[in-house]
Write a structure and sequence with these properties.
The protein is of the alpha/beta class and about 240 residues long. About 30% of the residues lie in helices and about 20% in strands. It has a six-stranded parallel β-sheet with strand order 5-4-1-9-10-11, with helices on both faces. Strands 7-6-8 form a three-stranded antiparallel β-sheet. Strand 2 and strand 3 form a beta hairpin. Helix 4 runs parallel beside helix 8. The chain is elongated and about 55 Å long. Bound molecules: nicotinamide-adenine-dinucleotide. The site of nicotinamide-adenine-dinucleotide has 26 residues, from loops.
């Protein structure tokens, strides 16, 4: 019997590894540096308070970069699964690029925010944003200049939509983690939650991650190979 036949509801967590073959550096690819910067210099509220120019310039460059790359076979395979899957499916991404949605994924949630919105800390409105923030533009809603920040969940801040993620996990039969190091919490803790609820767990990653031992099953290789193969299998099954 194919055990995949028992699966109706799926939660998928993706991380930077799913976008690596599109040409976006993963977080830890260069020995703990993100694009030559220490995390604490660019991805914390303290860094933003200390040196807003550096932080805004860093995210302006990342925002520009993601608009120059294309989704890869892993993003397309997950979008294909989203369209074809009759049960519940939630694609939770830690990624702040828009490659899942550009590939066509709909049941998608960005738990760490996105490069393509800006957040006004004066009026709390969020706006679609493709340009720069270093030049301190005015908020389109309240008109105050210099109060827009990247709509990114920095270290020490609360990820978005955790209630929806836990709700989906509570009703899932399968939890799949793709291209994530298992080092950033609370995302890294989802596999343990899943195991405690008796949900099947699968890791797809280039190599064994920090959390590999927490998964019932792991498959290793580049996302553009292992993800389409897994999607073919589960749709075929
Ligand atoms: P991470 O960099 O900590 O880990 C990436 C994981 O992907 C590693 O386990 C690595 O082995 C794996 N990997 C690398 N290349 C791969 C490939 N070709 N195929 C499959 N797996 C591959 O990233 P993370 O776990 O997502 O956590 C870092 C944080 O950094 C997240 O919060 C995320 O928001 C942010 N981030 C996002 C992006 C993006 O949006 N594309 C890029 C860098 C960092």
């Amino acid at each position: 019997m194919n055990v995949d036949q028992d699966i109706k509801n799926i939660v998928i967590l993706t991380g930077a590894g799913v976008s690596a073959e599109s040409g976006i550096d993963t977080f830890r690819s260069a020995g703990g540096l993100w694009e030559q910067h220490k995390v604490e210099d660019v991805a914390t509220p303290e860094a933003f308070a200390r040196d807003p120019d550096l932080v805004l310039r860093f995210y302006d460059m990342r925002r520009e970069r993601i608009q120059q790359v294309e989704p890869n076979a892993a993003h397309y395979a997950l979008a294909r699964l989203d369209v074809a899957w009759a049960g519940n499916l939630l694609l939770v991404t830690q990624n702040v690029d828009d490659l899942h949605e550009r590939a066509g994924a709909k049941r998608l949630l960005h738990m760490h925010g996105t490069h393509l919105t800006a957040w006004c800390i004066a009026c709390d409105e969020r706006h679609p944003w493709r340009g720069t923030l270093t030049d301190r533009p005015a908020c389109p809603a309240c008109g105050i200049a210099g109060q827009l920040r990247p709509d990114i969940v920095w270290f020490g801040e609360m990820p978005y939509r955790m209630d929806e993620i836990y709700h989906a996990l509570n009703h899932a039969d399968l939890f799949v983690s793709i291209g994530t190091s298992g080092a950033v919490y609370p995302a890294a803790g989802l596999v343990r939650e899943a195991r405690q609820k008796g949900i099947r767990t699968l890791e797809l990653n280039l190599e064994p991650s920090h959390g590999t031992s927490s998964f019932a099953e792991s498959r290793h290789g580049p996302a553009t190979q292992v993800v389409p193969a897994w999607v073919d299998g589960i749709l075929g099954g």
